[in-house]
Structures are given as C-alpha cells and as structure tokens.
Design goal:
- By secondary structure, this protein is α/β, with parallel strands linked by helices.
- It has a domain of about 160 residues: Alpha-Beta Barrel (TIM Barrel), CATH 3.20.20.
- Helix content is about 30%, strand content about 20%.
- The protein contains seven helices and nine strands; from the N terminus they run E-E-H-H-E-E-E-H-E-H-E-H-H-E-E-H.
- Helix 4 packs parallel to helix 6.
- The longest helix has 18 residues.
- The structure holds iron/sulfur cluster (SF4).
- It comes from Lactobacillus iners DSM 13335.
- Pfam families: Fer4_12.
- One of its GO terms (molecular function) is ribonucleoside-diphosphate reductase activity, thioredoxin disulfide as acceptor.
Length: about 240
C-alpha cells in the first residue's frame, strides 16, 4: 500500500476558489466570490454616492489640460444625433461623472494626436451627400477647444451651413455663458448642444441621445436669438 501524502488533506481543495490579490505590496489569497461581491458593492456605492465635479466659472482652461488628442473617430454612424453623422471623440474630461459611459476618454493623454491627415479624412467623409453633419463628443469637447474650433472653422469654410454640428458637453448652457472666450466662441458656432453632466440617479435609457433626464438637447442658434434656452424642435422624448 502506497505511503499517504502527509501534505494532502481530505475534503475539497479550497485553493481552487482563491485568488491572489496585492495589498500594499503583500500577496494575499482571498475567497474569489466574496472579493468580487465586495468590489461590485464598492463600485455600486461609489456610483450612487459620488457626484460629478462642479467647476467655478473659468476654472478649467482648455489649453491647460488639452493634449489635442482623439479617443476615437467614427464615420457614418446613426446614433450620435440626427441623420448619418461623423463623430469625433476628443480625449479628456474633468467632470468625473459616476457611471460615465466613456471612462477611458476622461484621460487627456488617451488615444492618438489630432492630425491634419485625420482632419482631411473627416472633411472628406462629411462631404458625402448622405452625411448630415459632424458630432463632437468625448471626453469633453469644451476642454478641447483648439481641436474642436479648428475642425468647426474648416467645416464652415468647406460646407457653410449645409451640414450641421452637434456637440455634447458636461457643462450646462448657463455655465457656458460664464465661461472663457474659446468656449463661448465654440458654442456660438455649433447648431445643437446636448448639455449637462451624466447623473446616474436620473439615468434613463429611453431618452433620445441622452443618458440622464437632466440633460437637454438645445437648439443653439434659436436659443441665442430668443435669449433663453430653446429645446430642439424634433425632440420626441
Ligand atoms: S461629462 Fe461625459 S465624458 Fe465627462 S465624465 Fe461626465 S459622462 Fe464622462
């Protein structure tokens, strides 16, 4: 009869349920189910209890933060506004909304540099007759005004107002009225602003083009003419 392995214990091998975690440089083995449950709970509490940041007027200066980087470019999509659109996702955002849909793009260094080559491609894509316009989102377009204004100005030069420009922003309409000149210039040159932070308690996935019910789809030019916020007239919900 073979000699019994003294190190082998009877019963289930509980090590199969353990995972290695690093705590302050020490390696610990913890129960994987409990660990994942705690992490999920912590993330849930974080999302429910934390709030987005509220900057003072002109506190965040675009050129101080922007690295002129792009998180993504998506030509010919149907989801970022009305009609077929070309969407530019700029990198960097400071609002830090819990539940943010694009965490990676909060980093100003994420992605690739905005180049002349990319701009030429975007303009060529937008020139297609079936494309309605450009969408700027991120990240925070109003903290990347150098990139956005360069593209907006080129678009107006090439297409006038035949193509429209939508932009998302964590800033509200009212906050932008008190902001720096570059942000105000950018606002004055776009057609539609989807404004405000993403607020997880107000999350509603049935809304058109918005994640939470505090956000508004604003007709920018009509709002300037009226002297108050005018909501996009094609809003369904
Ligand atoms: S404003 Fe938008 S990109 Fe910025 S943190 Fe909030 S959800 Fe994310």
């Amino acid at each position: 009869m073979p000699e019994r392995d003294k190190n082998k214990q009877d019963g289930p091998d509980i090590r199969s349920n353990l995972i290695k975690v690093n705590v302050g440089g020490d390696t610990l083995f913890v129960d994987s189910n409990q660990y994942r449950l705690k992490r999920r709970k912590a993330k849930y509490i974080d999302t429910k209890q934390r709030h987005p940041k509220n900057p003072k007027p002109q506190e965040w200066i675009s050129e101080k933060y922007s690295q002129h980087k792009i998180a993504d470019y998506k030509p010919f999509n149907f989801v970022d506004g009305e009609g077929v659109r070309c969407s530019l996702y700029v990198s960097g955002c400071l609002f830090d909304c819990p539940g943010c849909y694009n965490l990676a793009a909060q980093n100003f260094n994420y992605g690739m540099p905005y180049t002349q080559e990319l701009e030429d491609k975007i303009i060529a894509d937008i020139a297609q007759p079936y494309v309605q316009g450009l969408t700027l989102l991120g990240g925070e377009p109003f903290l990347n005004t150098w990139v956005c204004l360069k593209l907006i100005n080129r678009m107006r030069k090439e297409f006038g107002h035949d193509k429209d420009i939508w932009s998302w922003s964590g800033y509200t309409w009212d906050e932008l009225q008190l902001e720096t000149d570059d942000k105000k210039e950018m606002l004055s040159k776009i057609d539609i602003l989807v404004d405000g932070r993403f607020l997880d308690p107000l999350k509603d996935l049935t809304l058109q083009f918005r994640g939470s019910s505090n956000q508004r789809i604003i007709d920018v030019q009509k709002s300037f003419a009226a002297g108050h916020v005018v909501i996009w007239d094609k809003l369904v919900r």
